[in-house]
Amino acid sequence: MAAYKGIGLALGLAVETTYGTAVTPATNWIPLTSVSGPGVTKNYVENPLLSDQPTREQPVNVRSEWAQTVTTNLSYQGLGLLWYYATGVTPVTTGAGPYTHVYELSTTLPTSLTAETKRGTAANADVAEGVKVDRLRISGSVDQYITISADLIGETSNAAAVGTPAYATTRTSAGSWQVGDVSWNSGTYCPNAFEITIERNHSRPGMMGCTVEPVNDYAKVSGRFTFEYDGEDWYAGLRAETVDDADFTITSGADSIRFDLQNLVIKGVTRDVSDGGRIMQTVEFECYADGTKTGIKITNVNGQTNYNDN
Predict the structure, then answer these.
(1) Are strands 60-73 and 92-95 parallel, antiparallel or unpaired?
(2) Where are the beta strands (DSSP E) in the chain?
């Protein structure tokens, strides 16, 4: 038997109306650069009886869980379900082409997704139900494509025949050469690298006799920028405990993704020196809600009529 190859790695998503009730076939497909994680894990409990056998009696699985991390290129189209399930507020769409889709944080999140992982040329797909986006991370650095990775958690999964991916008609990957300046505290700064993380901090409750949907805690929005060290603005902001919004936009023609980092608090600034060349500084930050702003707003402009168009 020939070994399976990673060619054709993809993730298919479908919206569940009832938590843990799988929906097939997948309606939104995303080509991937990598997938990692255990998939299904079993929570075994050993029998405590002191039997006369040479080993403990066979354990019982009391709960199955599923988890994996998927990574792909950040694209201007086809990622609406990931944005929505990581943020929570039903997206607001305006315009008449191009269309503007706005995502903001909510204390509650949509029910769940069914996630179908097509592992390249493998004969079967792994179809997980009750899937939540626990963490979303966007990162970029000079001369690289920008990546987006999602930590997914689910109830369990089953093997199924591989579906036929139907990707977005237009899918344009975003690169570092399309990133604009970062605006903050009345200044503009050209980044060398950046990372933004949205954590939803789900907990998996163990209940007797029933299946309970994971519950999210407070969201955490954090990240870092790397800039050339050419002034004291960011370090001065750290010392002064400055709280201000920051934003930057990634643009390709009429398509764009803007990140509004609201109530940004600088948590640290490092300016390490180890040689005679250019000094870089890394700014660590977190963002916070204030009753009007939610901590982050993502504005995606593209040609898709609906935020979740494939």
Answers:
(1) unpaired
(2) 10-16, 28-31, 34-45, 60-73, 92-95, 99-104, 112-118, 124-141, 147-154, 156-161, 182-184, 187-189, 191-199, 202-203, 215-216, 220-228, 243-252, 255-270, 280-287, 296-302
The tens digit of pLDDT for each residue in 168-203 reads 788 999 999 999 999 999 999 999 999 999 999 998
- HEC per residue, 186-242: CEEECEEEEEEEEECCEECCCCCCCCCCCEECCCEEEEEEEEECCCCHHHHHHHHCC
Q: Which of 220, 215, 239, 230 is nearest to 281 (CA)?
A: 230
| Residues paired with 139 in a beta bridge | 147, 195
pLDDT at 142 > cutoff 80: yes
In the chain, where does DSSP find H-type helix?
Answer: 80-87, 233-240
Are the C-beta atoms of residues 223 and 165 closer than 8 Å to each other? no
CA distance 200 to 12: 21
- For 299, the token pair is 């504005």
Q: Which of 184, 183, 221 is nearest to 201 (CA)?
A: 221
To 10 degrees, the CA torsion angle through 193, 149, 288, 285? -30
